[in-house]
Amino acid sequence: MGGLAVLPATGFFAPARAHGRELQFDQEMYRQAHAVLPPQGDRLVELLRPTETLQNWTRLLGLRRQHVPMLQDNPAVMAAAVQQNVLRHNPQAKARAIHNADKTDALLDFLTWVPNDHVMEFNVFRYVVPVKGAGVVSFQAAHRFSSNEPGAAERLRHMRHKWIDLALSVDMRVIESMLD
């Protein structure tokens, strides 16, 4: 799957809605479970479904503002670098990075696993140039599951297409504001 492709121009709608430190995504509510919000530097907010913890999550949303000068604070370069890192750790992983024409909006999706383990992780990341300040703002939707679950492959195919569409529709200004 690897490689970069150009992201088609699309309208951006809001399938993810913020309610304080809560976010609705794919018709489910997520609540803040962890945050690193220093006055200066990189910022992180992780949200989980109410019944899950950082130790047992199966679905997680990650919001980040990162300063990555070595990647020119460029969303397309960031997506490609994370894609390369995923493939370096698991050469059989499935990973795809795409971006818009001016490289200010990029998307990465990948499926990876630890060798000789049935637990898999599917991720969709969207990276954008922030409205305010420098760096890259990102939205992550992650799903952990067992490859032994009946119907897992078919559910993943459906989820992948749906989550990519949803991630491309997330109002990234909302994500950026949750990191302020």
Structure characterization notes:
The protein is of the alpha+beta class and 180 residues long. The chain has a ten-stranded mixed beta sheet, sandwiched between helices. β3 and β4 form a beta hairpin. The relative contact order is 0.20.
What's the gist of this structure?
This protein is α+β, with helices and mostly antiparallel strands. It is 22% helix and 38% strand.
- What's the helix count? 3
**Radius of gyration, Cα only, in angstroms?**
16 Å
Parts with pLDDT < 50 across at least 5 consecutive residues: 1-15
- By secondary-structure content and strand pairing, the structural class works out as alpha+beta
Fraction in helix: 10-25%
Termini separation (Å)? 35 Å
- Large-scale geometry: globular
Order of helices and strands: EEEEEEHEEEEHH
Biggest sheet strand line-up:
1-7-8-9-10-6-5-4-3-2
What is the percentage of strand-forming residues? 35-45%
Residue-averaged pLDDT, rounded? 89
**Strands, total number:** 10
Largest sheet: 10 strands, mixed
Features:
10 strands, disordered N terminus, alpha+beta, 3 helices, 180 residues, globular
